[in-house]
Amino acid sequence: MTELPKTLEDAIAQAREATQAAIADGYTRLQIELLFPELKLMPVAQQLLPTFEQYGDKLKILFADAGSAGLARRDWTDVPFKITDIGTGRAASIQSKIQPEDEIFLFIAPTSVEVPQLEKICEEIGDRPFVMLNPFLEDAGKIGIGYAARQIRERFTNTIESCYYLRPIFEEAALFRCYPGVWEVWVQNEGDYQKVAELAQKPSGDELDIILAGQAQTPEGETVATVPARKPSVFRGLQRFIRALRN
What we know:
This protein is 36% helix and 22% strand. It is built from nine helices and ten strands. It has helices at residues 8-24, 41-48, 66-75, 91-97, 115-125, 140-143, 147-157, 205-212, 234-246; strands at residues 29-34, 59-63, 82-85, 104-108, 130-133, 161-168, 173-178, 183-189, 192-199, 223-224. The protein has a ten-stranded mixed β-sheet with strand order 3-2-4-5-1-6-7-8-9-10, with helices on both faces. Strand 6 (161-168) and strand 7 (173-178) form a beta hairpin.
């Protein structure tokens, strides 16, 4: 059983193993989410790179914008893989970014702005595997809140498997998934984190509220351990969890 990580380095190591396991099992559309405020993604992405070292120059890394891609090219010296950006949406630019010799792709923090372009790029990628690190694809203010916009977003995001997910929730709690494990809710109890729920699917906000209120009301076949009701304190919980990860 995979335990909740105690440091950011532990979380990254778990994410690497989960990604490799998912790819070995045939998954080709994956995402890793480490959802902590003020997390600097460039060092995290750099620590994830050994996940793909077997691919050498067959790995292509795509940032959301040209500026971030340029910084990575400046700072990541003597690397075999290629670094570029997602781009603006022209068919020619998509075809120039995805080459036949590319075997695997890592997207760094794509946003809702890039969803149409991102979907086209992934169509060009085809059956080759790709991994997204901390995608932010669901900003309704950017892509619209209408039915058509939601359909476009969901059609794409529903094809992606979450192989690693770690997010603080409410006071001293966390939502966690490490492939091939299920979704788990952990709560701090007497100075340590304990697993209080296992779910086959990512829980909704309402389901999390029920679990954290100590009510064992979950879909059939899933398990929850009762925990005392807690008054939410989002910022305090986040600060403690991040501080623990950084120690």
